[in-house]
Amino acid sequence: MEAVVFVFSLLDCCALIFLSVYFIITLSDLECDYINARSCCSKLNKWVIPELVGHTLVTVLMLISLHWFIFLLNLPVAAWNIYRYIMVPSGNMGVFDPTEIHNRGQLKSHMKEAMIKLGFHLLCFFMYLYSMILALIND
Amino acid sequence: MSAPAGSPHPAASARIPPKLGGAAASGAAAPAGPGPGPHQQNGPAQNQMQVPSEYGLPPQNYIVPSGHYSQGPGKMTSLPLQSQSGDYYSGLYTVPTQNVATPNTASQQAGAQQMYGRAPPAPHAVGSTPGSFQGASSSASHLHTSASQPYSSFVNHYNSPATYSASSSVASQGFPSTCGHYALSTVSNAAYPSISYPSLPAGDPYGQQMFTSQNAPAVRPIRDNSFSGQNTAVSHPSPLPPPPSRQYHQQQSLSGYSTFSWSAPGLPSTQDNLIRNHTSLATASNPTNTVADSLSCSVMQNVQPPKSSPVVSTVVSGASSTRMPPAANRPVEPVASVTQPSELLQQKGMQYGEYVNNQASSAPTPLSSTSDDEEEEEEDEEAGVDSSSTTSSASPMPNSYDALEGGSYPDVLSSSASSPAPDPAPDPAPAPAPAAPQPSKMPKPFGYGYPTLQPGYQNATAPLNSGGPPSSPVYSGFQQYAQYPGMNQLSSSLGGLNLQSSSQPESLRPVNLTQERNILPMTPVWAPVPNLNLDLKKLNCSPDSFRCTLTNIPQTQALLNKAKLPLGLLLHPFRDLTQLPVITSNTIVRCRSCRTYINPFVSFIDQRRWKCNLCYRVNDVPEEFMYNPLTRSYGEPHKRPEVQNSTVEFIASSDYMLRPPQPAVYLFVLDVSHNAVEAGYLTILCQSLLENLDKLPGDSRTRIGFVTFDSTIHFYNLQEGLSQPQMLIVSDIDDVFLPTPDSLLVNLYESKELIKDLLNALPNMFTNTRETHSALGPALQAAFKLMSPTGGRVSLFQTQLPSLGAGLLQSREDPNQRSSTKVVQHLGPATDFYKKLALDCSGQQTAVDLFLLSSQYSDLASLACMSKYSAGCIYYYPSFHYTHNPSQAEKLQKDLKRYLTRKIGFEAVMRIRCTKGLSMHTFHGNFFVRSTDLLSLANINPDAGFAVQLSIEESLTDTSLVCFQTALLYTSSKGERRIRVHTLCLPVVSSLADVYAGVDVQAAICLLANMAVDRSISSSLSDARDALVNAVVDSLSAYGSTVSNVQHSGLIAPSSLKLFPLYVLALLKQKAFRTGTSTRLDDRVYAMCQIKCQPLVHLMKMIHPNLYRIDRLTDEGAIHVNDRVVPQPPLQKLSAEKLTREGAFLMDCGSVFYIWIGKSCDNNFIEDVLGYPDFASIPQKMTHLPELDTLSSERARSFITWLRDSRPLSPVLHVVKDESPAKTEFFQHLIEDRTEAAFSYYEFLLHVQQQICK
Predict the structure, then answer these.
(1) Where are the domains of chain A?
(2) What subcellular compartments does it reside in (chain A)?
(3) For B765-794, how does the pLDDT look when each residue is reduced to its tens digit (9 = 90+)?
(4) CB distance from B1141 to chain A under 8 Å?
(5) Which of residues 850-869 of B touch A (CB under 8 A)?
């Protein structure tokens, strides 16, 4: 059972890593002016909810399977994701808004955020991997 | 979706309005065609308008085989040339022949390098005779004088013609191209080869030298002066050095803003000298010379120094000695003299034209020109004509143009960074020593050089020279110089510093705000002038189009943070300009790496290369740029209009279009619901349109269309050939389609009759409508579909909340919260529908202008998104009614007139660039930011302002100037692709005091207002208000703790910031940010929209109205405008204490004028100006001043008219009696007074002081 949880977490984490990389690539494309803000934001906004769901799922799973440490580690990030999603003003087109992304250094902060998440997910990845192997061995 | 072909869409029915009469329904429906699909496909991609990254067509006109000249001697005869040149002048050009000739020559000379190689021979020709020399000098003097007139600084440069001439003679040497010519033509070919080779290498180094060796070369000219009245061959060697000096000059001038001090002081003397020399010389010289000179004068103003490198000089000296024989030329003296001027010219401007002429005139000598040359000349001529015509369009008279340009080449400035380091190294022996004495700051060896020359020249003794080019003479020259213009120059050289020191006291003078009772000046506040040297000041962009909040840019972000002041730009890029140089050329010269347009603040390293002032990359000067269409001269890249004007407009080539320029397309989307009909705007709009139909900007392709909507959407088929307009109704608002996509937007001229019919019919078509709903969203979608193939302007008239279909809105305003002091909600949009649509529109180059005429809440916050992101504009007429509210009706009428007839640019993009190290991070205005520095503007109008916030990313310690450039690429209504470029140059400072000294308080306030709007939308209004107060507190406390060492109990501010608290208080009481006073949400949002998109001048009046007392207008200090005397009453502070019952006051709030009449106002005034016998009989609502034939009435009216004319939108005039209820409107603008909810000015100061002390 334990192994299953971690296998799932591992896969989910992989997906999140890819997503983070995708965010970074797309944002840097925008930074370099390879794509315009509109298409960049519509691309990214599509993946905001999957990311949020994916991460919340792992977090909840850890809570259910009573892995407190991993749960607490994931909690702030999950909370941030949800907060960010909820706090989008009604007139905006999503977390990434093409009309504002170039203002007030938003692009940079988005980039920073994606980087941090990438690091976080990588960390999680190895933790899950380790835990999974441990679980498999224990089984 | 698509309508079935050939038959109306099921939902679409053709309705024939009574007025429209009998068009057959079938007819209407028949055309129903393909759905919207294709349109969209046609639509250009979003990226379309980006400026192509590559420009650079090779300059076609001027490519000439380099080998040309060498051929010359054998083939050619001068005669043909002469005849041609004669034709040129007389026939084609009013301009002197020499000028005319220039293009030809220019083309010939194309290969610069080769020219250099040839240079050495030139000395021969030059050296020949004193007589010739004189002639040359005279020409030079001519030039000088002519040049000098416009600008004093200029004169300095050239102070003494003599030097000039000397240098010029030298210059011929220095200037390879001419020299080459010369050598070939006149003297000895044999000499040529030997000499030429050495020179070639020189050419290469020369670039470097130019750059580095400023000091040394500069000195030389002086020396030259000193020595040589009559220069024989011996003298020549000396002349060689001068060319470097010139270069040097240029460089200095370029580099030099630090150095620039050369200004007026030296002038008088120099001028005298010039004149003297000139006359004497002229007499000496042949008549031909004089003629040539005079001709040349106009052309020649800016001379680029010949580029001989020091190396060259040495070589040359040798050569010159050998050349001595050239004296042989003398026999031909007249000729020689003639030629010399040309040489001079060449030296200066490298003007080949003259050169050619000279050659022609000097028939005897074999000249290099060939039959080939002739052909080329013709071609060039054409080119010349073209260019001249274009320039003439900008400014009819070339002369006036020059005046415009004003600065001659001294103006060409480079950032000091490039130039500052003197390097002796490149120079051969002579140079180094002189280099040292001249600090980079001492600017102008240039200016110096000339004066010194003169004396030398006059003396005509060569003693100094005897030594040849060596350094010693240089010294002497230098010293002389020092003595000579001495004081003047010193002072001028220190000019930059002086300016600072002189300006600082004033702008930094500590002001105790709490004790200064009358803080507001009596006259309008002008933008501070950046602390640059005179030449740069002259060249700098007008503050009306381009302003920076800090006219002294702090060196580092840390310094900026210490100052606690906002750093940003305020732009008004498309302002209506009375004078604008328009430039047509094949290649628009831009930096290869950062794509900056060439501008007055670049530095020319030599004639062939310029250094970008934003990224510091060294670029080549394209061949075409060497030719100056204004003066028709060649080789003066620094005199091109691009380099003489900080605001220019280019006609762009096809490189700058991704599709053919679009026609002007106007679509009117009109609300015709019951509410709208009730308000009655249709009558005014249609009337106004009918009147201005012919004045709509556009060409023969102009298209126009109409869409009306209530709960359904009505299209109008105006296809040419119909007997009457047909109305097509689409009731399927969930899935809007275009019934007849081809005939809804029609050519204005082909269908004019139908359009007029429709406009006449429209106001009465819906009089009996019962439809109260408004399907705005679907109507906009339809408009988008209609416009997307071409792009253009959509004018939307809306009178209520959209209540049907996509984009419907709910009322969000709670009237009870209007005067809440706590939270103001709903400042942001309720839905992203309008934003999305706006972005779609923006992608298709369509802008939506919103006219909101409503009496109730209409959620402007949401609707405005439509215009904000599509780069439209917003007009709001609260409680509009055509009879009940005549002042609004009149305002709409006048606004419409302006709106319909003002200039417009389509499919525009604006890019803002700034010097490396600075970066932009936030933009304010109506547009879509497409990439970090690129604003996408579907339309641009002359009333749109923008603001940009800047941060300093890298330290600017290695530069003393920063530049900002905005380039607005747009399609004019005539279908021309144009680029309007503004460049602003500002100094960098390292001390906090300087930063404070340079604050532009109005710009800072406007930028703060923009930031506060953002803050109140993204966060909350109270946050924004706090931020505003903190801005004052922080900046004043930072000033108090760092700069001012005066210990006062009061609140100390530098003089430059003394109005800061007042303006911030005004902002806090502005509709957009006020709390506690009942403010309707739409009013507030509209005020915010205006803050975002108004240019600074208009915004300032909104923030801080001007109050004048008008019952005692006098002609004292009056100005004359168009034969009218406009009195200029002093500004009064905005406080009730200034209002006396005996007076009448005019308050100018930007969009509204109030005239407040005191209770016991003089009856004479009331009678003379208002036309009523006494106070009691003045009506409550009065919006006009009668045209009475009395002096005071005339004065008052001319004053008000003058105020009105200064702004694009006509303000409404309200006459407010002291006791009328409307007076609260007036009194709420008295921002220095206390209101129930807000501080008085004094209280505010105390509050700030308290905060500082905390």
Answers:
(1) 1-138
(2) Membrane; Endoplasmic reticulum; Endoplasmic reticulum-Golgi intermediate compartment
(3) 888 888 888 888 899 999 999 888 888 899
(4) no
(5) 861-862, 865, 869
